[in-house]
Amino acid sequence: MISGQVIDRRKFMKIGGTALAAGLVPALEADSKSPDQTTYSVKWYPFTGHPDSDTCWSLSVGPDGRIYAAACAESVPGGVVKPVRYNEERDDLDYLFDLAQMVDDPGTSGRATQCKIHYSFVPSMHDGVLYMATHLSGPPIDLPRYSPWYSWHDPKRCFRGAALVAFDTRNDRVLWWDTLIPKEGCRCLLHDEERGLLYAMSYPRDHLIIYDLHTRQGRDVGRISSINPQALFLDKQHRVWTSSDYGRLVRYTPETDRLEISPGLLPHNLNYQSGWHSVFYDVAPSPDRECVYASTWCPNPHLMRIWPNAGEWARVEDLGPATQARDTTFPVDMFRDHCGGLTFAGDGKLYYVASRWRDPKYNPMPGSGKELEGVVWRLDPQTLAREEVTELKHPTGVANYVSRGAVDHNGDLFFGHVGNRPSGIFKVSMPADRKKKNAHLPIRMWG
Amino acid sequence: MQTKGRFDPNSPDIKAYLEELAHQFVREGTMVAFPTCLPGMTTPIPHDECRITALDIDSEGHIYGGTSGRQAHLFAAAFRDLTGVVLDVGVVAEGTSSVAVCCGQSGALAFVNGARGGRAIRIPKIDLAQDWIQEWGLKPPVLEDLGECVPGEPVAHAICDPTRRSVIGITTRHLFTVDVESGKIMVIGEVRGGGHLGLNRSAVFGRDEGARLWQFDLASRSIRRRAIELPEGDWTVALRWASGGDTNQLFTGDAAGRLFSFDENQGFRLLGRTHLAPLGPFAMIPDGRLFGFCGAEMANLFCCDTISGRVTNLGVAASVLEQRRYGYQFGDAVTGRDGEIIFGEDDNDGHLWLYFPKIKGRGRTTL
To answer: What is the model's pTM?
Structure first.
């Protein structure tokens, strides 16, 4: 891409489109060394079994310790999502099913399609079920685009609703499905397994939805704001947290059945931001479950550590920006300026991927490399020191936008990626001395 | 199964569709969502106590309103001169639903339902016309509870008479009045109460049994039951009204979104039909256009030209000044001093939405 070029979301997702046609998408393996010469090897797994796929918005570890990802197809009219799983014996991906067919809402329906799973894989440990919920944006097969606002009242075009699927990972079969949120997509999902409740954020109306797995009934708790938060998290008191688009914490307390808004603002750049749009992008629990680490979905996203049980409204520590400085007199899109994929690994360190790009003033990288890079960072929760351990490499396209990250039962890192067609996932093999079995436990209960 | 788009991207239909998508929000005019606070100075009304369900405007152009939710709040607002403030006047004890606010000559009265029944609450006159950055002085106002309007009956709606000295209200079963100055509540008689009240220069109208209206004559203080027959339509919803125009006509609508003008002498006249139903709040601006919302869950703004009867879909409400907000559900509307409309957002964290309609072009005339 050329510096200064207008890059909208659709263009961004098409960047790798020619790569498939040219047969340039073999799995790529590369070794990188962190400053202390510890080797992290990186391998790319394109969704070649679903060539329409243009995004991978969900990647999570399942209750079986294996990695699940969503091969989404949202820019393709009639496009549908296919859940995939990393097969460690074959070192390849298994395509599990066509979700749209599974829930009787095929891509040919004429409605907005079951095109993606957006931060909405959640495990159920007691029975080995992986719940997944769909999101909207994929246009009907005979239209170039879809707007949930425009088609809300159109029974022919309107999205049928977020489909909730219960997938039994022990037997590889779908046990049941239901419509989680009529007419709306599910932006992100959380499972409170002790109470048998799923929590979801609806799109576009930004309502918090509670789904009781015992009764299979949903309930709308009400609207939060306008811009969807991209993550929910759970604390030890079974309270569910997210953020409003005014940059405040939002907390749902089951005992009072109230949605409350924090008085304080989440960290943001005080020089030019007000906190607006500082919604959560990704939230990872610490291994001891005492705090979470989060990044925001706004330019120059900040990392933060949140202690939800401290004080009346949690203690929030600003860990600083995750991405580089830039010229703030001109906007930057949040595909370029991005931080996601937060996950703890077996070495007790937080890993995440932040974008880095060539900038003549703020980051004059050599012209021979790619303009956009995805850097894997390792943060020590004790010292808060960060080190760059490797860079994600795509054979032809970009590797800067990671949606989610997870560690599997072997202790290796995986990252879902957005920005190439077909889309895919990265595997980052952990150095032997930083790797341990069952590093995914205790498991993250939200997407 | 792989799927591929089945359309011609160059077809007129597809181009027209894309053009529609490009203008799906506020196709005409400008909307500004204003929070329920003095920005930068106070905090807004709490998120789940801020569904704005009742509004009125006083003779100075200041807005008074009430919220619904976990607790009902009453507020006063000003957007003229050096103001820009929504002042949270206070919480109504055990109140959860504001059904009407009426700006009288000596202050505003609010009607709020809750665990203690349907009560009349006096909001003292607030001097909003100040420089709200520093040159102001105001002690926190105190709400005065005037009591339950009719024991055991929630209030459905209330409206000021043209003198603004008296308020006429209805509960589920009775019509009552409140003297604005003294606060004295008087039960007038038995009527069926439901939906909003309409007011013209001489009478108040409300929904009666069947497809009929009762009429309360302001001069004689008498009620005529089943006085007026509603026109052919679907009258299965609670009525909403707007008034305005040179003859101070009334406007209402049915469950299917049909809009009617009403005049005691000329009766009802069908104006047009909104593209969605049910009708939400609507109000008339001085040039004879009605603006309001229609549709459940995700309302659309509409415009009805009461002269031509043309009804236009103006899309979903969105405010983009400073920070974006979408508006999906609205509870009440009043026309501002200069022809803008103020909508109350009936949603969590409800804002006051100021709508500045597009100025109509004047036809050229040859001298």
So the answer is: 0.94
